[in-house]
Amino acid sequence: MKQLFCLLLAVCMMASLCACGKGREKDAGNDTLSSDEESSASAEIIPTPNEQETPEGSEPSQPSAGKVDVDLTVLSSTMVYSEVYNMLYNDPAHYLGKTVKARGEFSIYQLVTDGVLQPDPVSYACIISDAAACCAEGMEFVLEGDYTYPDDYPELGTEITVIGEFQSYEENGMTWYHLVNARLA
Asked: How many angstroms separate the CA atoms of 108 and 119, rounded?
């Protein structure tokens, strides 16, 4: 009885492996077609992070010059969240001085002192969510020019596109990152 059970189990495993192989051959043909279609239709090439690097000795580009080094608006929601997380936590030094373009929801940060919300916003941010909208990162920005809140800013929750230079700053012994000389597009 044990031998019959082992033989039956071996046959089932082989059948399941063969079934997976047939589907793969069929899909492989479809992948080749879609790859050919994509390569003939690709008009836009997204540079890798190494290609986005600014050569040493050159000055960082200004947002007003129109050149964007890191365009987060062309990435999928999963990739944009991952890239922003990488910018803020994993490898921020790689992005310093680069012009970044991001799209997200407009938000403000306000201080709470002794349990009381302070009336003046401390900073402004573009909130970027992941694909499931369960996680979000705020890309803080400082607009170029003399603006006052709320007159010169969009309504809270409005979708915005912001372009600015990625820089660091120190506050209360902590290093933070934001987009400076920013503009809303």
From this structure: 11
| Other C-beta atoms lying within 10 Å of the C-beta of residue 28 | 9
- Cα–Cα distance measured from residue 138 to residue 2, given in angstroms and rounded to the nearest whole number: 61
Q: How far apart are CA 95 and CA 70, in angstroms?
A: 8
> Do 164 and 179 contact (CB within 8 A), yes or no?
yes
pLDDT in tens, 23-77: 444 444 444 444 444 433 333 344 444 444 444 444 444 444 568 999 999 998 8
The whole-angstrom separation of Cα 24 and Cα 18 is: 10
d(CA 150, CA 121) in angstroms, rounded, equals: 9
The 8-class DSSP code of residue 133 comes to S
3-class DSSP assignment, residue 120: strand
Q: How much is the CA Rg of the chain, to the nearest whole Å?
A: 25
Does this model's pTM top 0.85? no
Q: What whole-number distance in Å separates Cα of residue 158 and Cα of residue 173?
A: 32
Contacts (Cβ under 8 Å, ≥6 apart) of 182? 63, 141, 142, 143, 144, 162, 163, 164, 165
Instruction: With cut-offs at 50, 70 and 90, classify the pLDDT of residue 96.
Output: very high
Maximum Cα–Cα distance for the chain, whole Å? 85
